[in-house]
Amino acid sequence: QQLFLFFQRKPKYSATRRLLLKTKLLKKAADMLVAEEEKRKTERENTLNERVPPLRLSGLSVQELQNLCRELHQKIDVVDEARYDIETKVAKNEKEIEYLNHKIFELKGKMKRPNLKRVKKSADDMLGAIADTKLTKADFKANLKTVKKEEEKREEVTDWRKNVEAMSGMEGRKKLFDAAQ
């Protein structure tokens, strides 16, 4: 017991000190998360303000509004085409990555071989080993108990298409009724 107490380590910090440090770390992390979220929001607002200027619709005639709508539709089409192109590239890259990962997995599987030990045996020893395994299998089967099962009465399964005509009508129903009894 004295050796056990000798090897037992005392913590550098007390439990209350560790709890205080842990709470401070958690508060700092929460503050950092809030600051990061605010930073993301401001960056998003700035990029939206740069890319999408505010619309000024007051004082425009009907013709100018129609021209503005056409321009906006053209811009939307260009953005949709770019988005579609990027999505197809991403999907293609993901499929390629999956394919390459599968190939790597296959190659690793083929290259991994177990460490085999070299065993020196003569031909007689090998034949003796094969004969021993056959004998042990036969002995094992001989020692098993045999259990007799009652054979269930099974009707012979035939092709149903062959005797459709024979089983049709009232005669066929009579045969089925007689067979059930």
UniProtKB/TrEMBL annotation:
GO cellular component: troponin complex
Entry keyword annotation includes Coiled coil: yes
Keyword Chaperone: no
GO biological process: one example: skeletal muscle contraction
Single GO MF descriptor: actin binding
Record keywords, A-Z: Actin-binding, Coiled coil, Muscle protein
Superkingdom field: Eukaryota
Recorded coiled-coil stretches: 26-82
Pfam family, one: Troponin
Function: Troponin I is the inhibitory subunit of troponin, the thin filament regulatory complex which confers calcium-sensitivity to striated muscle actomyosin ATPase activity.
Similarity comment: family membership: Belongs to the troponin I family.
Entry protein name: Troponin I4b, tandem duplicate 1
Gene name per UniProt: tnni4a
